[in-house]
Amino acid sequence: MKVSKHIEELMPYVPGKPIEETKREYGLDHIVKLASNESPIGVSDKVKQTIKNHINELNRYPDPSCFKLKQTVAKYLNLQTENLTFGNGSNELIDLLIRIFCKPGEKVMTSKGAFIAYKVCAQAARADFIEVPLTEDLRFDVKAIVKAVKQHQPKILFIANPNNPTGTYITEAEFTYLMQHLKKEENTLVVFDEAYNEFVRAKDYPQVTRTLSDYKNLVVIKTFSKVFGLAGLRIGAVAASPDVIALVDKVRNPFNVNTLAQVATITALEDEDYVNKARQVNWEGLDYFYNKLDQMGIKYWSSETNFILFDTHKDSSEVYEQLLKQGIILRPVKEYGFNTHLRMSVGTMDENKQAIQALKTVLK
Ligand SMILES: *Cc1c(COP(=O)(O)O)cnc(C)c1O
User: Of all protein residues, whose CA lies closest to atom 15 belonging to ligand 1?
Assistant: First the structure.
């Protein structure tokens, strides 16, 4: 059957290798998975209790408007409920935004080395995809991006801030520069994907949601998969002008966010202890990685996320394979154009130590 070249050339998203599969294939019974930027501290006890409390509602369809959740998130982000809607993971929202705003053959833009889901979703929607080079230190190059937007007139520009897989971020000054230059480009939606927002320590990281009312073409995407530890429930949010939200609400499936995801997210947002612990464990882990990788003479990029990108100076597929044999799952990032690099999520300190030990053996 004949399909368009966008679909034919589509390289599907490759998720982190599952634990059970690795156990089977390598005959191991202990695995450390640091491949998908998941929360290493398990599920919040309060969330578990909430899920138990709502289990008897599963014969009913979920609330299609996510009414209570929307009120909670509006308060959390200091926005109006009209500025919000939700998706089955933020991945669905990326997909929806592209389907809504891009006709086949129109353009989606991001940077090289930016989150790969933008490319996969763009191709699936038969949109053309443009990548602006990163700077030498693997940061978004805002000047080059502004130029490229004016030249190519993309319908959507995606900026992951901080970015996956580089861990780098756009500063407040860079954000202001970008929006000042792009606010008149009314046909380009500027989408900030803040999946790792709560892990940021940098003082000059911009508070983008606070500026939503200043820029009509600004959109922010949030996820509950990372610091809130709900990756398996699949829930993300989009914050934007009421016009954009109305369009997303028109196109999304009415029951795209399930009952348990809705109630669990409300509890997760109120469970400050869990989030604080997740952040603390993450920052200690990152500092541990910096220290060890420095000692080992391995080049890495300082990260504002819950993972770290480093350069093995070897074919990353081989290093990845050897680590698997030792029961450590990291993430090769060749599809991003990084052939000798690996991405390693922060785990518990015990897992971090096992990963570093295995790396020492493999990279010797
Ligand atoms: C992990 C991640 C997401 C989250 O995706 P979900 O579909 O919400 O689980 C979104 N954007 C980036 C850049 C990510 O790394």
Answer: 164
**How much is the pLDDT for 13?**
79
Atom of ligand 1 nearest to the CA of 225: 9
Backbone angles phi and psi of 100, in degrees to 5: -75, -45
Task: Report d(CA 154, CA 188) in Å as an integer.
Answer: 6
- Cβ of 101 closer than 6 Å to ligand 1, yes or no, is no
Ligand 1 center from residue 64 Cα (angstroms): 22
Average of per-residue pLDDT values in the chain: 96
Tell me: pLDDT of 6 over 90. no
Ligand 1 centroid to Cα of residue 306, in Å, is 12
Q: Which residue has the higher pLDDT, 12 or 346?
A: 346
Identify the pLDDT of residue 14: 78
User: What pTM was estimated for this model as a whole?
Assistant: 0.95
